[in-house]
Specification:
Layout: E1 8-12, H1 16-25, E2 29-33, H2 39-42, H3 55-64, E3 69-72, H4 80-89, E4 94-97, H5 103-113, E5 118-123, H6 132-136, E6 142-145, H7 147-154, H8 167-174, E7 179-185, H9 196-205, E8 210-213, H10 217-220, H11 226-241, H12 245-267
Helix pairs in contact: 9-11, 9-12
């Protein structure tokens, strides 16, 4: 079950057996991903993953695990209220709303959910950057920064550009009273093309409350004890939050250097 007092690790559902294992091991939520409308065209040519989950998957996760079950729906549309009703009926504890481009869309999502589930709003478009404080003032629970689509929307060189160009810091300063998260973690010592240690340091620097486990997590954890791995991830975040200002500044310079080197390679 979800523990809101600890740093939260959220995992995309893959199959029931895995979801049961990782729910029992301590992930804070399982995510069933229904977002697919227009996503293939939008992310064509980018190194992303598009899930093929269904309402049946949502019901199965709800009925076969003890997890807090999150469901990402499609972006705002005229049919959003129908999709919200469907996922509520299927048992979603929390609804993730992606691709918001106007504050009215965020308000419509909140109104449609109407307190029947927790709410995560995603900031992943250029337009959304201008009304983050207004989003966080709504009766929602989380704001998550979608780095993949934010890169596409802004035309950035890499998905990590917003970590060092001031964008993420500006967004963070506008989020008040709700949980804040971005990025994705995997096991210590791993992570490509950006080592996970850099993301741990930046999650701690920006006082993030949660993150997703990245798609490589399932591969990386195969020969490890999931209980120990999840505990270690949270300990790494905790330790990173204890750094002094000089250490934080040094680690941020290392992050900038690593991302700049990556972007030079991508531009070559």
């Amino acid at each position: 079950m979800q523990n809101m007092s600890q740093f939260q690790l959220l995992l995309f559902h893959r199959d029931i057996a895995s979801s049961q294992i990782y729910s029992d091991a301590g992930v804070d939520a399982l995510i069933v991903d229904l977002e697919n409308r227009g996503k293939g065209a939008r992310q064509l040519g980018f190194d992303t993953e598009i899930n093929t989950h269904s309402l049946a998957d949502l019901e199965a996760v709800k009925n076969n695990t003890n997890a807090h079950v999150m469901c990402r729906i499609n972006g705002p549309s005229k049919e959003m209220h129908i999709e919200i009703a469907d996922v509520l009926n299927a048992g979603a504890d929390e609804i993730i709303v992606p691709m918001i481009r106007h504050i009215d869309q965020a308000c419509a999502a909140v109104e449609g959910i109407s307190g029947k589930a927790k709410i995560t709003l995603m900031v992943e478009t250029q337009e959304a950057l201008s009304f983050v404080p207004a989003m966080s003032a709504l009766p929602i629970d989380r704001i998550y920064i979608g780095l993949n689509d934010l890169q596409i929307s802004r035309g950035s060189v890499s998905i990590f550009s917003s970590l060092i160009d001031g964008s993420l810091d500006t967004i963070r300063s506008g989020v008040n009273g709700v949980q804040f998260g971005f990025g994705g973690l995997t096991l210590r010592g791993m992570g490509r093309p950006l080592p996970v240690s850099h993301l741990v340091a930046n999650l701690a620097r920006l006082q993030a409350d949660f993150t997703f486990l990245r798609r490589s997590f399932y591969h990386d954890i195969k020969t490890h004890n999931p209980i120990q791995v999840l505990a270690q991830m949270r300990q790494d975040i905790h330790d990173a939050k204890q750094r002094n200002q000089a250490q934080i500044a040094t680690d941020y310079l290392a992050l900038k250097s690593a991302i700049q080197d990556l972007e030079i390679a991508l531009s070559a």
